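Record type: monomer structure entry
Structure origin: computed from sequence
Chain ID: A
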Amino acid sequence: MIINSASKRTYVPLSFAPGEAFQFDWSEDWAVIAGERTKLQIAQFKLSHSRAFFLKAYLLQTHEMLFDAHEHAFLAFGGVPRRGIYDNMKTAVDKVKLGKERDVNARFSAMVSHYLFDAEFCNPASGWEKGQIEKNVRDILAMIGNSK
């Protein structure tokens, strides 16, 4: 009798309660604005439970753009989830320390305190820790690429 062995890759499905978490990431794309090809920074949010997403384009990835994107996403979602899952972007993290320890940027901390959610940061080079938004970034870029 032959018994199939387990796959070399094992995945643990994640489940999230409504309003528990969102994932955030930036992506880049191009648009023609006033006749000029312009690089855009796309703020991408994805609710971890419903998988609803929100996109907003900017010219830069500054604190002001990051904060504006959060305001618009939370308005579109009709509320603020309990926690946000991020990579270690410069507008949020001043220094990555051992494990999950971070020196969080003061302006980013003020925004998190204003909206009353917890920020959680992924380990460096560990995109699978926020895999829903990473997939969203790939899917959106593929969709945009196919429409050119």
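Annotation 1: The chain has a mean pLDDT of 83.
Annotation 2: The first helix runs from residue 63 to 77.
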